[in-house]
Specification:
This protein is an alpha+beta fold. The chain has one helix and nine strands. The strands form two sheets. The protein has a five-stranded mixed sheet, with no helix packed on it. It is elongated. It starts with a helix and ends with a strand.
Length: 148
């Protein structure tokens, strides 16, 4: 065999080897990135969650204060609040976005009637160990559903 024939065989072998080694795996910017599990099946993997608190068969007091686990969630006697009571729906409700994740058996909710002039403080509703469900909303996002 001549030297030029050896070079042609070597070049062909190298080209074939390069083609075979790169053929099985390709990457481009249009390839989707590896996806993480988009659905969290338990609250253990969440740091916050949306809430919906429904008051079944009753109406919230005109000026209400709502506490969750001893922390004031809203007080209608104060100025601008992050959360509000939706009195236009039946049942009346409170929607909260990105609130802390509750633990079953440790949820305490208290609703206080602050009176017409906001100078009174009467417990309207109080319950320890409030049951709740984790459900999917219309967008498929998990939320805490509390029925009082």
């Amino acid at each position: 065999m001549s030297f030029s024939t050896n070079i042609k065989i070597f070049a062909a072998s190298t080209s074939l080897l390069a083609l075979v080694s790169c053929g099985g795996h390709h990457s481009s910017s249009s390839d989707p990135a590896p996806q993480k599990d988009a659905v969290c099946s338990t609250t253990n993997c969440l740091s916050s969650i949306n809430w919906k608190i429904l008051l079944q068969g009753r109406s919230y007091p005109h000026h209400a204060k709502v506490e969750i686990n001893g922390t004031d969630l809203l007080n209608e006697c104060l100025g601008k609040q992050k959360y509000v009571i939706d009195r236009s729906t039946e049942p009346q409700s409170i929607m909260m976005e990105n609130y802390s994740v509750p633990t079953q058996g440790e949820l305490k909710i208290t609703v206080i009637d602050m009176g017409a002039d906001c100078k009174e403080s009467t417990v309207f509703f109080s319950q320890d160990n409030v049951p709740f469900d984790i459900v999917k909303d219309v967008r498929g996002v998990s939320e805490v559903l509390v029925n009082l």
